[in-house]
Write a sequence for this structure.
């Protein structure tokens, strides 16, 4: 199962692709950042991001797209552009009939590191370890997109099941199941997004 | 000059089309609401809105698209969906090479009624008068999309110039020029949107 993670942004939109294989392993496939120039008009920036994300989906034919859930109370200066980039990722997936999942940053951190408040460098190291890379993914901020893809593979009911999934979970990571279910229950509130 | 106004929303996205003619008149062409079902998943809702807006642009081949500017401090329950719908309208326009303009609700109210805090019913009546319609546009909330198109036609430097434009302006409406210029100066702050 190929999973494409998207860390949405209007200036930098991270894309990470992994394979959750029958070999019970998560494998690295690709990481990149789709960029738009802040000096361009907003409509052209959105077009650039949309074309970039569409090209990635065409190149890797993911079975699922995992996108960071954006919250209205996020950074006021960037939240609307972030929400729009997330919307474009959803649109590009929907146009191709690819299922979309939204995961919160806390869910991703818990899934990867077992700590919902993990620091950025800790997340980058764990992504590197889980995907058995020799060095941190570059550019570094693209690790978040890989984390979203991994989070989706490790989620309850996800690509890896039962014993396979247990291999990837530390005791602490199992907290994530609880947190994730809690988030799912409170999700009704955010449906207007 | 054909102008297509968009009042963005994820559940209801208003579309209004007018012509700013050489006859010094603004003429009504079309009004409608593109809808998506709240019970659908967000990615499919965005696809529905995007396809609806794209179809309108193909049907009316506007020379400009005028979209309501969304602010991060808007209603938290709907702001992200509204921003995403606005983003899709920008994307659909950019894909067709149609210039995009963003106007604030205050700009639209001042342009139409001369009052930046005009009530909804006052706006609907003024839109009806300016476009010489026999009755309020239906559905009523689509009047906002027509107001955005009219606002774009009447803006300083817009489709109607000098004497032509003066015909459409009351003394009070001229306040708008000042308010609009003020908004333009402070716009740098919102560039991250």
């Amino acid at each position: 199962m190929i999973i494409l993670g998207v860390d949405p942004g209007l200036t930098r939109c991270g894309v990470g692709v992994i394979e959750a294989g029958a070999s019970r392993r998560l494998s690295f496939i690709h990481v990149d950042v789709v960029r738009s120039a802040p000096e361009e008009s907003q409509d052209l920036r959105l077009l650039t991001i949309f074309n970039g994300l569409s090209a990635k989906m065409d190149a890797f034919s993911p079975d699922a797209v995992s996108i960071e859930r954006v919250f209205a109370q996020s950074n006021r200066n960037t939240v609307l552009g972030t929400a729009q980039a997330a919307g474009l990722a959803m649109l590009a997936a929907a146009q191709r009939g690819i299922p979309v999942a939204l995961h919160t940053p806390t869910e991703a951190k818990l899934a990867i590191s077992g700590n919902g408040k993990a620091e950025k460098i800790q997340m980058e190291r764990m992504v590197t370890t889980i995907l058995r890379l020799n060095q941190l993914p570059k550019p570094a901020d693209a690790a978040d997109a890989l984390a979203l893809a991994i989070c989706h593979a490790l989620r309850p009911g996800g690509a890896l099941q039962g014993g396979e999934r247990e291999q990837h979970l530390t005791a602490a990571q199992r907290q994530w199941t609880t947190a994730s279910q809690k988030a799912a229950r409170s999700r009704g509130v955010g449906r207007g997004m």
About this structure: Residues 160-174, 187-193 of chain A have pLDDT under 50 and may be disordered. Residues 2-192 of chain A form a domain with the Nucleotidyltransferase; domain 5 fold (CATH 3.30.420.10). The two ends of chain A are 28 Å apart (CA to CA).
